[in-house]
Fold this sequence. Notes:
By secondary structure, this protein is an all-alpha fold. It has six helices and no strands.
Amino acid sequence: MNRECFHSGFKVLWFSVQLSIFKIFMLKSYAILWVPLLIGLISQIIKVCLDARKSGFSSGQIWKFGGMPSSHTALVVSLCTMIGWHEGAASPLFAVSIVLTIIVVWDAMGFRRFLGKQGRGLNKMVQLLNHKERKLFFPFEERIGHKPSEVIVGAIYGMTVTLLLNYLIFYL
Length: 172
């Protein structure tokens, strides 16, 4: 009986060691995916915390666009950094990630910022209407895009933290 307990305990221990090795392998194997996602999530949380200091906390802020830092930029720069590091700067995949990064950054600073300005103008026009007509319109989002400084901070954050995590995962 005692011997059976030892063998079953050893089997459980061996299985947990194998599972741990598998988890470490998977952690490294999919780092090119989960590191950028983690960077995007953390930058969005940072943005919510910075906004909460200004205007109080709201759980709906996690889904808002615009603000410091640009989470979209941090995510795509992190992805581009991971691909460049692991696949090489001469790889076609890195070229595709550069194009994706340019599109996302251009969209954040250009088109979405323009939409935010349009929303601000439309909200001012709605305020000129009488109270009954004003009820027919919902307020338009005014903070959709990013200022260049928000995009630059997002890019620096995305690249720096990605390089740090890359070092911790693969070289320690």
